[in-house]
Design brief:
The chain has 431 residues and is an all-alpha fold. Among the domains are: 94 residues, no CATH class; 67 residues, no CATH class. It contains 14 helices and two strands. It has a two-stranded antiparallel sheet. It is globular, with a radius of gyration of 43 Å. The relative contact order is 0.08.
Length: 431
């Protein structure tokens, strides 16, 4: 039987009655689907946010109200590379002197002219000795130049490479701005007792053979009576800024109402050598008298913290003391800060100073109060009626605990009376 298309025979029977409603139904369905998707997305988003927030609250504790959050900061280096320290390099790094200082320096013939020139270390070390350890500091990306450069250079630029004067140059260095706050890391160990005889012999008979230097300089020193006056002391030590016959006795002009208050006077200090010139006269490669110039550590000893000194830095500023030598000598005064050498020039040096003192140790330089008795007991006597200034000031201190002993002292005069001063008076009374 042939296939019969009923829809074709009677199309009106199969006509879709909702044909006109299909577009509206389609739009409603699409809207419902979109609303459902939007709602579910919003739910998921809020759920994720809540979970993250809850996790954050569990992992990061809340800080108490009113306290600021302390964020970690980068650690800064505590090393100040503008301040070179031999203590660090010699003690900690175990570096020898010759690892940096080459004897003699290349410019030794240039910095001193003519007869004044002699082989010496006259320049700061070469860059290579620093680069072995400080390559990072040398090539730091700083503008201006890295701080480490200013240990030697006063204007470190590719064009200007000049350096400061080296301390061994003496006056040339001391007259520079760098010397103002300069405090050496070293003290010179100089055996006075081993040089008194040899220098005195030089004065009397001229140069002596190197064998004599060796025997006298490093042999057992002979005892000297206190009354002796070794003229060789003046070879190395001269009165600094002497008053002489001038009327003005003060280093700087004091205030009009100075009264009995202290003000630094001329001729207070003595000089000492500031170069190797006198030393290398005998200790040089030609004479072969030990120690030789390249043996730096034979004489230069790292300094230790000094004992309290009878020195007031604020008073020094008030008096307008600004030269290196006065400040250096004054800071070493561990005995009487006001003692004036010029008015005591008639006394032998060995009357107060012990030739066997260890110059590398400031404590050994302390002058005992017994020496203030002088040749005739001028400052320490049995009683104050005998004219002893020490007696007078001790009597004043006993009567008034606030009395300051200013005849000899700057800051020590306000401190408790030491037993050595009382013992000196008792000893004077037994003579």
């Amino acid at each position: 039987m042939p296939y019969l298309d009923v829809r074709a025979a009677n199309p009106s029977m199969f006509k879709n009655k909702n044909a006109n409603k299909q577009p509206a139904i389609r739009r409603a369905a699409l809207f419902a689907i979109g609303f459902a998707l939007l709602t579910s997305a919003n739910f998921v988003s809020n759920t994720v946010i809540d979970c993250v927030a809850a996790g954050a609250q569990k992992s990061v504790p809340r800080r108490p109200p009113g306290r600021a959050v302390q964020r970690p900061t980068a650690k800064k280096s505590k090393v100040d590379y503008t301040k070179f320290s031999h203590q660090t390099h010699v003690v900690q790094e175990k570096l020898s002197c010759e690892s940096c200082h080459k004897f003699p320096s290349k410019n030794w013939k240039d910095v001193r002219q003519g007869d004044e020139a002699f082989p010496d270390i006259t320049e700061y070390p070469e860059h290579q000795s620093c680069l072995n350890c400080h390559r990072q500091q040398f090539f730091a990306r700083e503008r201006p130049a890295p701080q480490i450069c200013y240990n030697c250079h006063f204007n470190a630029t590719p064009v200007e490479t000049s350096r400061y004067a080296f301390p061994s140059l003496g006056e040339k260095f001391l007259s520079s701005a760098k010397a103002m706050d300069f405090v050496s890391d070293f003290r010179v160990q100089f055996p006075h007792d081993k040089h008194l005889d040899v220098i005195s012999r030089n004065l009397r008979r001229g140069p002596v053979e190197s064998e004599s230097f060796i025997r006298v300089s490093f042999g057992r020193s002979s005892s000297r009576p206190e009354e002796s006056d070794p003229k060789s002391c003046a070879i190395c030590h001269e009165t600094y800024q002497p008053q002489g016959k001038a009327d003005d006795e003060f280093v700087t002009k004091p205030p009009k109402d100075i009264g009995d208050s202290f003000w630094l006077k001329k001729g207070t200090f003595k000089t000492r050598p500031t170069t190797h010139a006198a030393c290398f006269t005998c200790h040089n490669p030609e004479s072969e008298v030990a120690p030789l110039p390249q043996s730096c550590d034979a004489c230069h000893k790292l300094s230790t913290p000094p004992p309290p000194a009878d020195f007031d830095s604020q008073l020094a500023k008030k008096i307008a003391i600004d030269d290196w030598w006065t400040l250096t000598a004054w800071r070493d005064r561990s005995s009487a800060g006001a003692f004036r050498h010029e008015v005591h020039s008639d006394l032998s040096c060995t009357k107060c100073h012990n030739p066997t003192m260890n110059t590398a140790d400031v404590r050994s330089l302390k002058v005992p109060v017994n020496s203030c008795g002088g040749a005739e007991g001028c400052h320490v006597t049995a009683t104050a009626d005998d004219g002893g200034i020490l007696n007078y000031e001790i009597d004043q201190r006993k009567a008034n605990a606030n009395f300051a002993c200013v005849k000899c002292h700057i800051v020590f005069g306000n401190k408790p009376l030491p037993s050595s001063h009382v013992d000196a008076i008792l000893k004077a009374g037994t003579k």
